[in-house]
Amino acid sequence: RTVKLVKQHHNRDIDLDAIPLDCPEVYTRLSQGDTAGVFQMESNLYRDLLRQIQPTNIHDLVAILALGRPGPMDRIKDYAQRKKQQQQVTYLHPALEPILRDTYGIMIYQEQVMRIAMDLAGYTPGQADSLRRGMGKKMPELIAAEKERFIKGAVAKGIDEKIAEAIFQDMEKFAGYGFNLSHSAAYALISYQTAYLKEHYPIEFMAACLSSVMGSTDRVVSYVQSCERMGIPVLPPDINQSHVDFTPVDGAIRFGLGAVKNVGTKAAWGIVQRRDKPFTSLLDFCKRVPSELCNRSALESLIKAGAFDGLGPSRAAMLQVLPDVLAMAEQDKRREASM
Q: Packing angle between helix 202-212 and helix 217-229, nearest 10 degrees?
């Protein structure tokens, strides 16, 4: 699998399967909560989780994505402290250690619930899955029946009845809102890959992020602010330099025409397609780009955004003469059509 990043005027193919999963710079950035553009981790909740837990490997990311769910959320502090060896890892029964060791003795994944039922109470895989589903749907009669079965099975394996009951209560509390390991692992891989691209190809990555949210002014503003914090200049739109999307150029990102208010991708494509040679003036632009493609409202927005700054007159002057320029352009088009 590859991802294509645009780097200035050529493309760069990145083999996602070849990305190392142990890049320390990536985990350092994530631990700082710098997650703009990182899959599933842009919310304040996950930024806070990353800062608390300070991930150092992909397994931490898998756990963090699951810890953000309601079931295990109240154990976030315990997980963070146990990872940092600030709190002792304990188990209600020694048989839980191989199941919960990787998560510091804390139940995080639905698969752990199922394995506890199988290893400690003799459930079959099918019975364990039924237990998980019943807990998830909060079916009182089923849970009561499963509790009796679990405790009976655990006692038969030599586990004290009170301990078995405490384990079941932990399972019931968690499983109602738990996340499953397979989903969390798949999400974490994509989270890491996007964080890796951001760390090693920051300009290309942020240009792609900006392009992906062009329809939302608030999201564009947010990503532009992220670029500023990263030291990446975002250059204003330019009628002769900008493309439809945001593009990397000489250590910066050029604002995409498609993100300018009232312009949109259709008009932006039309402008780029008619730019076989540079536009020399506002009149030249209006003559070459039809008004039905780029109307007066779009032109006003382009002028206000600075897209015509490189063509001479001030923005105020261009806005003032725009009606006359549009009329002149239409006259020229009609004259050329009649010849």
A: 170
C-beta of residue 322 within 8 angstroms of C-beta of residue 282: yes
CB 71 within 8 A of CB 175: yes
Q: Are 228 and 71 in contact (CB under 8 A)?
A: no
> How are beta strands 252-254 and 247-249 bridged, if at all?
antiparallel
Query: What's the predicted TM-score (pTM) here?
Result: 0.86
Strands (E), the chain: 2-7, 10-15, 234-235, 247-249, 252-254
The DSSP letter of residue 222 is H
DSSP, residue by residue, 236-248: PP-TTT--SS-EE
Indicate the angle between helix axes 110-121 and 161-175, nearest 10 degrees: 160
Query: How many beta carbons lie within 10 A of that of residue 315, not counting itself?
Result: 15
Q: Is pLDDT above 50 for 251?
A: yes
- pLDDT tens-digit readout, 114-141: 999 999 999 999 999 888 888 777 777 8
**Residues contacting 174, CB < 8 A, separation 6+:** 71, 72, 107, 113
pLDDT digits (tens, 9 = 90+) for 192-248: 999 999 999 999 999 999 999 998 999 999 999 999 999 999 999 999 999 999 999
Phi (first) and psi of residue 32, to 5 degrees: -85, -5
Q: What is the pLDDT of residues 92-111, one digit of tens each?
A: 999 999 999 999 999 889 89
Which structure tokens are listed for 298?
């779009």
Going by C-alpha positions, the residue among 57, 99, 53 that lies closest to residue 77 is 53
